[in-house]
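Figure 6 in text form: structure in, sequence out.
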């Protein structure tokens, strides 16, 4: 019996040594929690177990009293950040059209608050985010396209790619909800692809868009909302992008339909995943391989 146990242990050890490092990530769309405390993210717990999350934090980290006077303002109370970190979110983009709602220094203060909660900020004054996970270095960038494609985008993304084993590029766009990518997003995605990004994702119009596999990269043209405390959007159809990155290998990717947490309701897995998959294919996605409530591509 002892000999059998030793043999099994030896086989396991060799197998473990042969394994190459890989990183599991999930990407979600727009998150705005206001004062928090509504449980809008609790329904997402465990949906992508063990994976590190990347989201867009819509609006600055601030108290309501710190907001500027304008027609529509968004904010995320500092204590609400614990609701995001509870989902294993490791990176939050702060480059969006509401980042300055608490003043010009709002993005820098948001970055400071995020770091204090163990979340790495990306975009704006924070620049690229660098994650060291399972022996790999992942660069995450976030750019707001409200004023068009930044003139130095190609250089920034190439520099980010040169510093990491893999590059994840995210973009924020504004405009009416639409399944079709905006022209500035198409240009930015092409630049990111040429810079060597492995994962490219967009958010901002609050609508989902096609998912695409293109040689070395996977692209989510619109993730939609994840959770929104403001009643300024009613778009509930959304999705998470789940990926596994391993150097020298094809990116593994799945799309997971969700019901966004809006109107004071929690974000939950979509009750109609099939309908979302049908929609994604109808608007030009790459072929989906469906498996229950998620689909590979």
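Output sequence:
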């Amino acid at each position: 019996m002892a000999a059998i146990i030793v043999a099994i242990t030896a086989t396991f050890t060799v197998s473990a040594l042969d394994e190459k490092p890989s990183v599991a990530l999930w990407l979600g769309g727009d998150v705005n929690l206001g004062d928090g405390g509504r449980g809008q993210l609790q329904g997402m717990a465990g949906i992508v177990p063990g994976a590190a999350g990347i989201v867009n934090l819509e609006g600055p980290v601030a108290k309501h009293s710190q907001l500027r006077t304008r027609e529509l303002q968004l904010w995320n109370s500092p204590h609400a950040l614990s609701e995001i970190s509870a989902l294993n979110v490791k990176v939050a983009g702060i480059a969006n059209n509401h980042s300055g709602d608490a003043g010009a220094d709002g993005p820098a203060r948001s970055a400071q608050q995020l770091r204090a909660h163990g979340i790495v900020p990306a975009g704006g004054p924070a620049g690229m985010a660098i994650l060291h996970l399972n022996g790999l270095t992942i660069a995450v960038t976030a750019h707001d396209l409200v004023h068009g494609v930044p003139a130095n985008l190609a250089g920034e993304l190439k520099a980010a790619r040169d510093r990491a084993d893999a590059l994840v590029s995210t973009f924020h766009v504004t405009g009416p909800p639409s399944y079709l990518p905006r022209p500035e997003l198409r240009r930015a995605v092409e630049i990111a692809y040429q810079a060597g990004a492995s994962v490219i994702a967009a958010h901002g119009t609050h609508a989902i868009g096609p998912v695409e596999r293109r040689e070395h990269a996977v692209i989510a043209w619109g993730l939609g909302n994840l959770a929104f405390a403001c009643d300024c959007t009613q778009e509930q159809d959304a999705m998470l992008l789940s990926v596994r990155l391993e150097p020298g290998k094809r990116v593994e990717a799945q799309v997971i339909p969700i019901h966004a947490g809006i109107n004071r309701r929690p974000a939950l897995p979509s009750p109609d995943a099939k309908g979302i998959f049908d929609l994604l294919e109808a608007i030009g996605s790459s072929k989906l391989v469906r498996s229950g409530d998620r689909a590979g591509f």
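Caption detail: The chain has one domain: 23-296.
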